[in-house]
Structures are given as C-alpha cells and as structure tokens.
Batch of 2 targets.
Target 1
Amino acid sequence: MRLWKRASGVLKDQNSIFLATLTKRSPLRNPDIEAAVIKATSHDEFSIDLKNSDGIYKWIRLSSSHLKPLVWSISNRMYRTRYWVVALKGLMLMHGVINCKASSVPKIGRLPFDLSNFKDGHDKPGKNWSHNAFVRAYYRFLDQKSIFVFQTYNGEDTGMRGRDAHHVFVIMHELVLLQKLQSLLDLLMQIKPLSKAAMVPLVLEAMDRIIVEIFDFYGNICRGIATVLMNIYSSGKVEATMALKIVQKAMIQGDQLSSYFEFCHDIGVVNSSELPCIERVPEEGIQELQQIIKGFPEKSGDDGLVLNRQEENAIVVMDSRNDFKTIITDNWEKFDEESSTEVPKNPFMEASLTLPLPQHHHQELPDLISFL
C-alpha cells in the first residue's frame, strides 16, 4: 500500500510538471518557477529537494519580478493539495521565501492561501490528525510573521510613523514591537508533533527550522528588553507599565522555552541537542519596575502624556500638546475593512523546496538577567 501511494505521488508530480511546461509565460506565470515549486513540494516524504529550493531563492534575490509567479505557484499548489506532505513542504518553502533577504518579500502581507483548517485526504479520517495539527500550527505562525514583516517594512507596526524624534515614542515603538515578537514566539512554541506518528523525518526537519527561528526571536526580545530598561527611567508611567507586562511575560516564556527545548531534545531535533540555559529575570528587577510605576502620577507635566484606560483591553495615550492619540492593545491583530492600513489578503492573485539545511551551530540564548 505504501509503495502504491509513493508511485501514485510520483505520477501526480510528473503530470503537474508536464502541465506547467505548457504554461504561457506572463507576469503572473513562469513555467520554470512552477516546475521548481512542484519539485520542491513533491509527494515524497522521504526526500528534500535542495537544488530546486536553492534555485527559487536565487530567483527572488535576482529580480522582484519573480516574486509574483512564485507566490502564485505556491498558492495554486496549496489550494489543490490534500496531502499533508505537500502542504508541509509548501509551508517550509514559504518560510524560506519570507526569510529571504530580498526587498520584494515584505510586499506579500497575509499569506495568499489558507491552511488554517487543513485536513489530509489521503488516509482514513483521524489517522493523520497530528500531521494536520502540525500543518495548521505552522501556517498560523507563518501567516502572522508575514503580516509582521509587511507592517514593519511599511512602518505600520506601531501607528506612530514619523514620531520617532520624540523620545517617548521611540520607547513606545520598541515596546509594541516587543509585544508582537512575544506573540510570535507563543505561536512558534505551538508548533510541535503531538504524537509519535508525526515524528517522521520531514516533520523533524521542519522542527529544526522552528528551533532556529526561536533562537532568533528570543534573542531579539532580550535585546529589545535591554534597550527599553536602559531608557525606562526617562519615560512615563504608560511605558513603565507596558515594560513590566513584557518582562513578566518574558519570565513565563522562559519557563515555556525550557520545556519546549526538552521536548525537542527527546524527539531528536538536531538544533536542541544541547539544551541552552534560560536565565530568569530576577525578582528584584520586577519589584523595581513596580516601584517606578508607583512613582508616576496619572498625568506627567514634563512630557504632556496622559494615561486613559477607558477602552477595554487597550491603553489610550493622549498628548495634550497636539491632541495626538496612540492606542496600544494586547490583542494580536485587528483588521478593519475601512482602514487605510489594512494588510492585503492576496496581492498577487490578480488573475492566483524546502529551506536549505541550516548550519547546526549550537547557539546560546541571550542572558536576560544581564540586561537588568
């Protein structure tokens, strides 16, 4: 049965490649890119096509005109597949695209395909539930990271573009950025195989990439906290309150990361073979932030900022000098159809590989305790 499934997958891939070669070249369609995407997202769960994935990343770096055909090809492949292997390879390929150092990538915005309710259709219902859960969790993270990259590139991550000349807004910018990084880290830690059936080489390869991403995110969070805490004394009550919540969440995430790395080590993920030591923020640091907050009045006469808590789940900051208002919310994302800053759902569907193997350097996570 397994042999028949593999043979059937090979035939499907060959047929798709043949049809791709018949495609007429246009700004939205590129036969060579479509064929490379099919090969990089093949039905074979035991092989990874590095040659075609490397070629795809070179295309993107070479010219921004290659991004539309690539995103169209991946989207078309994801919409058509009902096999978890193809879906996972497509996500791994998209992960590499998002991480490409190419100027055109931030224009993607939301992922132009939806795997949030993915269900494998090649086996009996319930047999591949853990694979389905893995694909869904991976998709949720990539979708939010792509939005984050889009907003950061376009200066929409805080709603305070152009205000960086004022010290307090620089700190606020950093605080909002840290909140989003912590939310992304939460999504990353939800990506893991939930049963022994899902602990197959392809899933472990994806997990290896997730570990690399976690190191990067946690390092950025620690550096961001260091920047904020070095400047918190010259800020206001709003910033100190947000900083306290971020540091408290960092402590919780430190415990969660330790458990996550132990789990990854147990299932044989290469990049967690040497478990890093997660340092904790000392309790004295938390108490010091709390004292800073207590020392601020509701209104600061120096910077003209007023804290207003009239909205549920949000902090509203009013600048009395120029009626400038900033809203900081704990919610991850809200999309308003009437908003001029709405993230495009599918900018490339005007008409609609995997990552290179990472270098297994055993990194040490930043020492968060040294930042206080």
Note: The two ends are 59 Å apart (CA to CA).
Target 2
Amino acid sequence: MKTLHAVLHLSLLLSTLSAQQVDEPVSYSCTEGYQFNVEEQECKDINECETLPDACKGRMSCINHYGGYFCLPQNAQIIISNGGEQPAATTRPPPPLFPSHHGNHQTTGHQARTSSVQCPVGFTADEFNFCRDVNECVPSSPCQHLCYNLPGSFMCQCEQGYELAPDQLSCHDVDECLLSSYLCQWQCVNQPSSYSCICPEGYQLQGTRMCQDINECETGPNCREDQVCWNYFGGYRCYPRNPCQEPYVQAGEGRCSCQSLSACRGFPPSIVYKYMSITSDRSVPADIFQIQATSVFPNMHNTFRIKAGNEEGQFFLRRSSNVSGMLVMTRPLIGPREHVLDLEMVTQNSALNYRSSSLLRLTIIVGPYAF
C-alpha cells in the first residue's frame, strides 16, 4: 500500500509539473507613457514630472496626465469641464491624474485580461479601453472667441482689444481710454476692440493721436475786405486793416503816424500794431516777444517799459541791449483770452535835452488748449 501510495503521489506531482510546463508564459506590454505594475497586475501611468529631470523649461509648470505630460506658464488659467457642471477656473496647475482602475495593458498567449476603465474628468474611454482626451472645443466651442484644447481641459482666449470675463469663457471689450491718459492729445473715444482720438473745434487730427491747429485764414475768406484775418491756436479773429484813429493816420501796414505835432502833444509820434498767439498754460518764465528800435542814432540812450495792459503783473519787459528789449511772460496764461500790451521805447539824449518815444501795441491771443 505504501508503495502504491508513493507511486500515485509521484504520478500526480509529475502531472502537475507537466501541466505547468505545457502552459505558455504570459507577457505584458503597456502603451507609451505607462509601465506594468507586477504587484497590482495592471498598467500604471508614468509621472514624467517626477521621473524626467527638468521636464519643462523656462520655469513653466509641469502637469502630468495619462500617457504623458504638458507644460504651462505659471499664471495659466486652467478650466476643467465636468460634463454639464459649470467649468471651474484655477490659476494653479491641477494635480497629476491617476486612474483608480486601469486596463491599458495588452496580453499575449491564450489568455487575455479585460477590465473597465474609469477615466478622469476631461477624458473618455475609446474602443480599446484607453482614456483619450476630450476635445471640448468641438463641435460647438464653449468660448466666445478662441478655444484651445488642453489634455483633460481647455482654455479660452480673446481677440485683440478684448479680455476674458470672470467666467473665463466670454469676452468683453477693453476700454483702452481708461488704461492711459496719454493715448490721445485731447479726447479718447472707446470703440469695440479699439479706440480713436478726436480733436476739438479748430483742430484736425494729425496721425492717430495728435491735434494740429487749423489755419482758418488760409482755408477761406472768413473776414471782410476791410479786415485782416489773424489765426491763433484753436481759432481766428478779424482785425481792422487800418487800426489808426485820430489824430493818427496810416503810414504803412499796421503802422500809424501822427502828422501834427500840436495835435499829438503828449502822445507818441507813432504806434505800431502787432499780433501774436500762444498756447494756454504755457510754462514760465518764457521769452515771447522782442521789441527793437528801427532807427539808431549816435549818443542816444533807449529804455523799454510796459506802459499799459499789465495790471495783473503777468509780463515783464527786460532790456536786452541799448536797441532791444524782451517781453517775458512771468505767469501762465489760461485761454481763450486776449491781452493788449502797450510796449514803449523811450529815446533820449541828456546833453541835447532830447526825448522821444514810440509805442508798439501788442495783441496776445491765448488759445483755449495747451496745444
């Protein structure tokens, strides 16, 4: 009996060994980006963000996903869609995605392993039980303007002149006029995806942002025949061609002379009319006008002063030489306004007991703007 039992035991052992040797060995191979886990007997995703040294360049964030990884800027907006739920936006990279159960392995031999796949949000299982990225941008784009598909998510961007709304999906116009007060010289007008500059009356747009004065005296006859047109910054004015009043008579363009010494006693023998224009709020001090003697006589001494029109003390007449003086603006002038100054030059010789004067009536037109 013992011999028979031993023979039966040996026969069973040989049968078992023979059966093991007859079965073909089972081998496993995973798709790229996965490796087979012997303990759990399934393909596991490789976290390239941990295994690859310096996977992303330029301080970009590395984001692992099934079968690979991608790099995004540090401040990238990531939108994760979860079916019909409202997409959630985050500025931090999402955590690496790992499945709880994954069957992405292939078998060779007589036996095949099959298992269901649980894909994370933004992925769906294909016919081979692989988790494939869902392209949220097609067929209908969730973004108002531009949609960019990302592994497991998507990102919206806006066209030039627009920016993303808080929902990270829609776009609203950027009001460029609020970004800077230096876009336009005068006034900025916001437009969809852009802006434009406009100029006040009396000016025309030069280029895209600067305003240039319109010379109305050149564009057409705006004054009567007996008047002269004078253009200033932002407008024009008409002045008499003959400004002379009794007892003066016109002796040339803008020049009045007194022909009777008895009638002009106490008055300057001549008056010269001049006009000039300046911009509003000009920086001071500023030299704005020079008065100069037209005739020079030997041994004569000339002095200059503002005889009238400077009651508010906004000007100063500086003697620059024996024959010239410089009008200096000492305080900023705000327009539109007109200032009329009488600038007097007194010529005298003490030895000859000679004294004479001449008057220059200067009209200063201050424009309404600083340009």
Note: The longest strand covers residues 337-349.
